[in-house]
TrEMBL record:
A molecular-function term among this protein's GO annotations: carboxypeptidase activity
Ranges in coiled-coil conformation: none
Organism in which the protein naturally occurs: Streptomyces badius
Protein name: D-alanyl-D-alanine carboxypeptidase
Family membership: Belongs to the peptidase S11 family.
Span of the signal peptide: 1-36
Length: 299
């Protein structure tokens, strides 16, 4: 009988040890899974940030996402959106470059696509000049082309009106434009959330997507004399080629805006899109965007 009792005890102890070990392993597994499912939110240098899943519209990250701030050249996303939203827009339509555009660049010490007076540049080419080197001369040319009125000033005012109307149609309550390029007069502002929504709308357009994902381009334009020259433009967005899946969108900077970036990337069928405003340097705005997207892809 004693032998039988000892065997039973041994089996009981073994079973207990096995169950205990199993419970520990299971607990560790659950803890590991829970930890992997909730990555720590990134710490960014920028004063404002917003990230969302572009497919579902779900918010993934916020930092002062609804605080109004200067936007710099990220304004040009709306400039492009207004152009591409025109009914039956002809991308091959040619625009003659005016002296007023180059004078504006000089007077504002603005970023330039180096457009040459008298050249005939297509609307499609102007979009590359607008979005890659962030040409304020290209922005002026597009505003002059697509605004309505008998004078250049009236046409520009009309175009900016279209920018604000588009913001209103997107139900953006914290966005206002008083310029076609971000060089405002104190009344040009948006928020990380609003700018992301503008970019999301623009990215629905195939032409816009093609332009903003381009690292560099060489465009053949017609000269005043009827000959041609090539314009070479490089994208200021350093995410392209340095971040896997990056698809755009636009950089911005300025004395008040500091360093801004609207960005997007797609991995395994998931697209995240977001904005950082008022970062402290080019390097930091890029690093901020990468941290946010890394976080977004894990969520």
């Amino acid at each position: 009988m004693k032998i039988g009792i000892k065997r039973i005890n041994r089996v009981s102890v073994t079973a207990t040890v096995t169950l205990t070990a199993g419970a520990v392993l299971a607990g560790g597994s659950f803890a590991s899974t829970a930890h992997a499912a909730t990555p720590p939110a990134p710490k960014i240098v920028a004063k404002g940030g917003f990230l969302m899943n572009d497919g579902t519209g779900k918010t993934l990250f916020t930092k002062s996402a609804d605080t109004r701030r200067a936007t710099g050249s990220t304004t040009k996303i709306m400039t492009a959106l207004v152009v591409l939203s025109q009914k039956n827009v002809n991308l091959k339509s040619k625009v003659t470059i005016q002296k007023a555009y180059s004078d504006y660049i000089v007077s504002k010490n603005a970023s330039s696509a180096r457009l040459i007076v008298g050249d005939k540049v297509t609307v499609g080419q102007l979009l590359y000049g607008l979005m890659l080197p962030s040409g304020c001369d290209a922005a002026y040319a597009l505003a002059d082309k697509f605004g309505t009125g008998t004078t250049r000033a009236a046409r520009v005012k009309s175009f900016i009106g279209k920018m604000n109307s588009t913001a209103k149609s997107l139900k953006l309550k914290n966005t206002r434009f008083d310029s076609f390029d971000g060089i405002g007069n104190g009344n040009n502002y948006s928020t990380p959330r609003d700018l992301t929504k503008i970019a999301s709308q623009a990215m629905k357009n195939s032409t816009f997507r093609s332009v903003v994902k381009t690292k560099s381009t060489k465009q053949k334009v017609t000269t005043k004399s009827g000959g041609y020259r090539y314009m070479s433009w490089t994208n200021t967005n350093k995410l392209l080629g340095s971040y896997s899946g990056a698809t755009g969108v636009k950089t911005g900077s300025g004395p008040t805006a500091k360093y801004c970036l609207v960005f997007a990337a797609t991995r395994k069928g998931k697209t995240v899109i977001g904005t950082v405003l008022t970062s402290t340097s080019e390097a930091n705005r890029t690093a901020d965007a990468k941290k946010m997207m890394d976080y977004g892809f894990k969520k």
